[in-house]
Design a protein that fits this description.
Elements lengths: L1 H54 L3 E2 L7 H16 L6 E5 L6 E4 L7 E5 H6 L2 H16 L2 H24 L11 H39 L2 H15 L5 H5 L27 H14 L27 H5 L18
Helix pairs in contact: 1-5, 1-6, 2-4, 4-6, 4-7, 5-6, 6-7, 6-9, 7-9
């Protein structure tokens, strides 16, 4: 269903591009906008993994890491990638107190997954597995390619609107609505494209939840993790994400401060809707029960019974990415 919804939304966006392009720029204008937008997004497609990992100061980790939690994280990601039939991704951690994670890379052969230190501090091992299975699902579904195509068409539509503003493209009286119609198209076309782009992003999150729950074989763990991340993310600022909001759709939970909602202007589905879908999937898989509600945001880390009560971040002096004074990395994080 989510695949069909994605294809339908892409078809709507393509039709929007063709219609708006004809009204604003005719044939030549459409071609120029599409070529320029495709070139920009092709560059991003080939280099997105390097750009975003550097932006968030991601650090590669492996099984030799001195911290047991990190070693478990690496081992679980590698095992789940193998179980899902995927090449081994580049596994990284991000020094940030906000619990979150994302995947990037142009294809499964060039994929990278990243978890924040806050995520490793606050979630149990099963919940971390659920989150990273979700990210591996994005890799398996080639969602980076899907969102690159979406961004290309949306960018082309925005460029056509700019052409209408700066170059006119002929006698406005020849267009339906004249000057008023041109201004309306200039304002509404990019907004419409953006709404479709966000709808596609939401559809991909639902699909990644489903596939990720199957990879980890534990939909309840992912549902519990989503609730905890949502509760903590609202109380911890992710400074790099706030400075680069265009990357917000990459994370498993919107990293920007604010209330998530399954509406036209959100890149992520409402967490409650995602949890309900996962619990229904768990019932179908023979895993009944209810997810324990996540607590309100508190300062202490969530730890499971097999982990030391001291947060990893505090124990290893990992520098955070807020706007406070930065210090060189120290301790087991490297």
């Amino acid at each position: 269903m989510n695949h069909l919804k994605t294809f339908a939304l892409l078809a709507v966006m393509t039709a929007l591009f063709m219609g708006i392009g004809y009204l604003i720029g005719k044939g030549p204008g459409m071609a120029v906008a599409l070529v320029v937008a495709a070139g920009m997004n092709l560059f991003s497609y080939w280099n997105a993994d390097k750009i975003v990992l550097k932006m968030y100061r991601a650090q590669p980790v492996d099984e030799t890491h001195p911290n047991a939690v990190v070693r478990a994280y690496v081992a679980d990601v590698k095992q789940m990638a193998q179980d899902a039939g995927l090449p081994q991704p580049n596994i990284t951690i991000i020094p940030n107190d906000q619990p979150n994670a994302f995947a990037t890379g142009r294809n499964p052969q060039n994929a990278a997954v990243a978890a924040t230190t806050g995520l490793l501090d606050m979630l149990t091992r099963d919940e971390i597995r659920g989150v990273m299975a979700h990210e591996l699902a994005h890799v398996k579904n080639r969602d980076t390619l899907t969102m690159t195509v979406t961004a290309t068409v949306a960018g082309a539509i925005a460029m056509l609107a700019n052409f209408a503003l700066f170059f006119g493209g002929g006698d406005d009286r020849e267009r339906p609505g004249g000057m008023i119609g041109t201004i309306a198209l200039m304002l509404l076309a990019p907004m419409a494209a953006g709404l479709v782009q966000m709808a596609i992003s939401r559809a991909r999150e639902y699909e990644a939840d489903r596939v990720g729950a199957e990879i980890a074989d534990d939909p309840q763990a992912l549902a519990s993790a989503l609730q905890k991340i949502e509760a903590y993310a609202r109380g911890a600022v992710n400074a790099p994400a706030e400075r680069n909001p265009a990357t917000a759709h990459m994370f498993i939970i919107n990293p920007l401060n604010g209330k998530g909602a399954d509406n036209l202007f959100s890149t992520h589905p409402a967490t409650g809707n995602r949890v309900r879908a996962l619990m229904e999937l768990g019932t179908k898989m023979g895993m009944g029960g209810r997810v324990r509600p996540a607590p309100a945001f508190v300062e202490s880390a969530i730890v499971d019974s097999g982990r030391s009560a001291a947060p990893i971040r505090a124990a290893t002096s990992v520098p955070t990415t807020d706007d406070g004074p930065a210090s060189p990395p120290r301790g087991p994080w490297g």
